[in-house]
């Protein structure tokens, strides 16, 4: 189950890396990994900071 979730999450960075780097290039997976790390960091930031702010503003109304 965990491997299925990981594969689904890594499809998007692989597609984005495919726009900028040829899949036959050696650095393709390095670029895909860098994009995946950025997505992971952005997900953590949204979970830690944006969701509590949205919840706070939702209850004020």
UniProtKB/TrEMBL annotation:
Annotated transmembrane regions: 27-50
UniProt KW keywords: Membrane, Transmembrane, Transmembrane helix
Protein name (Swiss-Prot/TrEMBL): Uncharacterized protein
């Amino acid at each position: 189950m965990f491997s299925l979730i990981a594969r689904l999450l890594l499809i998007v960075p692989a597609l984005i890396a495919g726009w900028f780097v040829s899949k036959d290039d050696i650095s393709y997976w390095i670029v895909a990994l860098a994009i995946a790390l950025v997505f992971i960091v952005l997900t953590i930031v949204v979970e830690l900071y944006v969701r509590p702010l949205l919840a706070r503003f939702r209850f004020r109304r």
